[in-house]
Specification:
The protein has 24 helices and nine strands. It has 421 residues and is α/β, with parallel strands linked by helices. The strands form two sheets. It has a five-stranded mixed beta sheet with strand order 1-3-2-4-5, with helices on both faces. Strands 7-6-8-9 form a four-stranded parallel beta sheet, with helices on both faces. The protein is globular and about 65 Å long.
């Protein structure tokens, strides 16, 4: 008899033959060398939960699952095609319901609901942070007895731009100068728009330069990825519904620049009965532009770059070659390979806030790889990775800068369209 709520997770877990080929790919196993911190060990624990051999409050279950980054490197390594991400999300959903009344769970839900998913709360908190940074109070706060996740977030956050530069892209339809090659929606997200608005604007300019008519809906919002990863799918459902209503049905694609958001959105159909058609149109910017055929950039960029594969792009979406192909035609740009480009950086949504010791150990390996490449710029495709890698490089006093793929492409087009207003 399978525990109610874990039927699909249990069926998917049976594909695992415990061969162990996932072990070298798992960032936590690399750090702890514990079987319970490996995908194989976690699947064994989750199967035991589904079969009723252990209970939801068993500490031998909670610790290993909490330490999982959900990077899904194990899925890329698995010869049996185990859908580990689905098993983990279903199990975390059940555990989340069991924890619904705990103080920790209530605080997390409050933060995700009101300061991540809601534009007003998010902008208020970011404005407060920007003022704090300008007054130098953020450095003072690092020495105060604040909760560890709050101190960690202060260390992660870059210096925010002024208010005018943090305003969201004006919602409307943007027309390219030349013939229209595609009719797309631009998904701007939540934290991506607030913290990395410059990246969204860069992507908009790149899409226009490549002949795309771009729809930026006013009522779009958070994709719910952080809720989903935390086992709060039902709290993510209204966010998904809002985005389903926001985007026109006749678009060729819904394009975005956040690997984590894209991975979650492409999998809406696994658990949301009405979102399959929407999910089928979601495209990462590199995937979309590579398929469309990029207009050759003319601006010379004399930089040496290494490309870091965001986990939710390479493992979650299977996109590896497209970003590199987009960088290839840029005049003057030289690519330097990383030794292990698909290794996780330790960001994983809010993992680096909740599991800082393990996140730092995983980050150290990534920073070593980036510095050893000799590149002057690290290019990646996910906001969390950008924040995490920037922090790691700063701690090493490295001069390597971190840019999003959209920013590099934008710089390579000399004739830009002003989308700042």
């Amino acid at each position: 008899m399978v525990r109610p709520g874990l039927e699909r997770a249990y069926d998917a877990s049976l594909d695992c033959v415990h061969c162990g080929l996932c072990l070298p790919a798992c960032p936590t196993y690399q750090s702890t060398a514990k079987e319970t911190d490996s995908p194989r060990g976690r699947i064994y624990l989750m199967r035991a939960l589904a079969e009723g051999r252990i209970e939801v409050d068993d500490p031998s279950l909670r610790g290993p699952l909490d330490r999982c980054l959900a990077c899904r490197a194990c899925e890329s390594a698995c010869p049996s095609g185990v859908r580990y991400g689905e098993v983990l999300e279903e199990t975390r959903e059940l555990l989340g319901r069991a924890d619904a009344r705990t103080r920790r769970r209530k605080v997390l839900a409050l933060w995700l609901d009101h300061f991540v998913a809601k534009r007003r709360g998010q902008h208020m908190s970011m404005h407060a942070l920007a003022v704090t940074q300008r007054l130098g109070l953020d450095k003072v706060a690092l020495h105060l007895p604040l909760p560890k996740p709050m101190l960690r977030s202060l260390s992660l956050m870059p210096r925010l731009p002024r208010l005018r530069e943090r305003r969201r892209i004006e919602p409307r339809v943007y027309e390219p100068k030349g013939p229209v090659r595609a009719n797309v929606g631009l998904f701007t997200g939540c934290m991506m728009e607030t913290v990395f608005g410059r990246v969204n604007r860069a992507l908009l300019r790149v899409l226009l330069a490549n002949g795309c008519r771009v729809h930026v809906p006013a009522t779009q919002g958070c994709c719910g990825a952080l809720h989903i990863h935390a086992g709060m799918r039902e709290r993510a459902r209204p966010l998904v519904d809002a985005n389903l209503q926001a985007f026109p049905a006749d678009l060729d694609a819904i394009v975005l620049d956040s690997a984590g958001c894209g991975s979650a959105m492409k999998e809406y159909g696994h658990w949301h009965e009405g979102a399959a058609a929407f999910a089928a149109k979601v495209r990462d910017m590199s995937e979309f532009l590579d398929a469309l055929g990029i207009v050759p950039p003319q601006q010379r960029l004399d930089i040496t770059v290494c490309y870091d594969d965001a986990c939710h792009l390479c493992h979650g979406q299977g996109i590896r070659s497209a970003p590199r192909r987009l960088l290839d035609p840029i005049p003057g740009l030289v690519q330097r390979p990383l030794e292990k480009p698909e290794d996780c950086c330790g960001s994983a949504g809010i993992y680096n806030l909740l599991q800082p010791e393990l996140a730092d150990a995983i980050l150290a390996r990534k920073v070593d790889d980036i510095i050893a490449s000799g590149a002057s710029t690290c290019v990646t495709a996910n906001p969390g990775c950008m924040l995490q890698i920037q922090m790691g490089l700063k701690q090493r006093r490295s001069t390597v800068r971190v840019l999003h793929l959209a920013e590099v492409l934008d710089a390579a087009y000399a004739d830009r369209v002003d989308v700042s207003r």
